[in-house]
Amino acid sequence: MELKIEKRTENKLLNRTEINFSVSAEGATPSRKEIKAAIQGSLKVDDDLIVIDRIDNQYGTTNAVGRALVYSDKGSMGLASQYKMRRDRGEKGKKAEGGAKKAEAKPAEKK
Question: Which CATH number fits domain 2-109: 3.40.50.1100, 3.10.290.10, 3.30.70.270, 3.30.70.330?
Answer without folding.
Answer: 3.30.70.330
